Automatic annotation (TrEMBL):
InterPro entries: P-loop_NTPase, Phage_terminase_lsu, Terminase_L_N, Viral_DNA_packaging_terminase. It comes from Methylobacterium fujisawaense. Residues 409-441 are annotated as: Disordered. Residues 17-203 form the Phage terminase large subunit N-terminal domain. It comes from the Bacteria. Pfam families: Terminase_3 (PF04466). This is Phage terminase large subunit.
Length: 441
């Protein structure tokens, strides 16, 4: 018999529910309590437990160490064997560790899991939830979720707190409900309360922010939300779909799908992945172009705008990305090369004319909300440079969209394609040279 102490606020972990959700500020003991409860459950009966989060580069990013510490604290070292990549119990229980984002095939292999613990769930994307939830379908299986909320609009908060499913137990758990809250953290908490009450409300009390500190598009996001421009945006089959790309392989490739309807820029779709060559993304375009009755979306494409590095020669191919796109039958344009600051300014200018499909563009919108300036290590103030993190690739693709998108001059004929001074320059270049896009002309 294992003797273990738990805060009363986490007693629900031993009740039956499909979803068990604990959210709130720092110092509440959420992660500590979840680890203990899972270890006790897995000692009482065989369980296959997946411990996951949105991004996991290595086991250092996981709860492996926390579980190992709790095994020792609970006196279960003779029962559990802590291995390098897994933890196994004498009764056949096992704890597995994996990241969610861009790991679809591996996540789908965990369908036999009886318990899933999603830690730091505030950053989990819609696509990750859409993959994970139907995968965990073993009878009696449960999904346990812990997170410190940031934005009320974040996917996880909306899905499990604001609109909690009926088969969920949801609890807000803060430092005040942790009977073992250490004095060292109390000093930190009180100091932040005195210095910055707004930050204290988020960090320690688990209150949501409307926008993140240093958010680059803070004003634009708030204005779009107020004007209800994050909404349902249907595909207009009478207008072409243009795509705007940020390229990566080890890093992520992000694609926005947009239509120009009158004076509106309609962001109707978004796709992002990593670790794939161009062929994968060409297949994505092809799938979305299929008729609806064949599982596609019926898109008819206009122009595909690539960043300037699409013209770089690749060691693994005799052709550039631009040339490969032309060879696949797509009309390609190269986004003008501007400074990041100029691109951000362009994005701010077009934001008021943008309507985003809140379902199909959910992950892209989440990235725009979380795109923020980096912090200078010396001054601890926000720098002039954006932070390079999970949100930056989708934001870069949106920035390229803004630089490329239409601002027709009065003497230009009306068209349904991006048509600005860069457009006219590129058309001249295409006529005057056999390089670049002229390769496939």
């Amino acid at each position: 018999m294992v003797q273990a102490q738990f805060p009363e606020a986490l007693a629900f972990l031993f009740e039956r529910a499909r979803y068990k959700v604990a959210y709130g500020g720092r110092g509440s003991g959420k992660s500590w309590g979840f680890a203990r409860a899972l270890l006790i459950e897995a000692a009482q009966s065989p369980q296959r437990v997946l411990c996951t989060r949105e991004f996991q580069i290595s086991l250092v990013d996981s709860v492996h160490k926390l579980l190992a510490d709790q095994i020792e604290s609970l006196g279960l070292s003779d029962f559990y064997e802590v291995q390098q990549t897994t933890i196994r119990g004498c009764n056949g229980s096992e704890f597995l560790f994996a990241g969610l984002r861009h790991n679809v095939s591996k996540i789908k292999s965990f369908e036999g899991c009886s318990r899933v613990w999603v830690e730091e769930a505030q950053s989990v994307s819609k696509s990750s939830w859409d993959t994970l939830i139907p995968t965990i379908r073993k009878p009696g299986s449960e999904i346990w979720i812990t997170f410190n909320p940031e934005l009320e609009a974040d996917i996880t908060y909306q899905r499990f707190v604001a609109n909690a499913p009926s088969n969920a137990i949801v609890r807000k758990v803060n430092w005040s409900e942790n009977p073992w809250f250490p004095e060292e953290l109390r000093i930190e908490k009180d100091a932040l309360l005195e210095r910055d009450p707004v930050a204290h409300a988020t960090v320690w009390e688990g209150h949501c922010k409307q926008v993140l500190d240093g958010a680059i598009y803070a004003n634009e996001i708030l204005a779009a939300a107020t004007a209800k421009r994050f909404t349902k945006v249907p595909y207009d089959p009478t207008k072409p779909v243009h795509t705007f790309w940020d390229l990566g392989r080890a890093d992520k490739t992000s694609i926005w799908f947009a239509q120009i309807v009158g004076f509106e820029f309609r962001l109707i779709d978004f796709y992002e992945n990593r670790g794939h060559a161009l062929g994968h993304y060409l297949d994505v375009l092809k799938e979305r172009a299929l008729p609806v009755e064949q599982g596609g979306k019926g898109y008819v494409y206009g122009e595909h705008w690539l960043p300037h590095d699409a013209r770089n020669e690749l060691l693994a191919s005799e052709r550039t990305i631009e040339q490969q796109m032309w060879a696949a039958g797509h009309q390609v344009r190269i986004t003008p090369k501007l400074s990041v600051a100029s691109g951000i300014d362009a994005a701010r200018q077009v934001f008021a004319r943008c309507f985003f499909d809140e379902e199909r563009c959910a992950d892209g919108i989440q990235a725009l909300r979380n795109y923020r300036y980096d912090v200078d290590e010396m001054t601890q103030a926000f720098s002039k440079n954006p932070l390079h993190d999970w949100a930056s690739h989708a934001a870069d693709a949106f920035r390229y969209f803004a630089v490329a998108i239409a601002e027709p001059r009065p003497d230009d004929p009306p068209v349904n394609t991006p048509n600005d001074r860069y457009d006219r320059r590129r058309r001249r270049e295409r006529a005057e040279t056999t390089q670049g896009t002229g390769w496939a002309a």
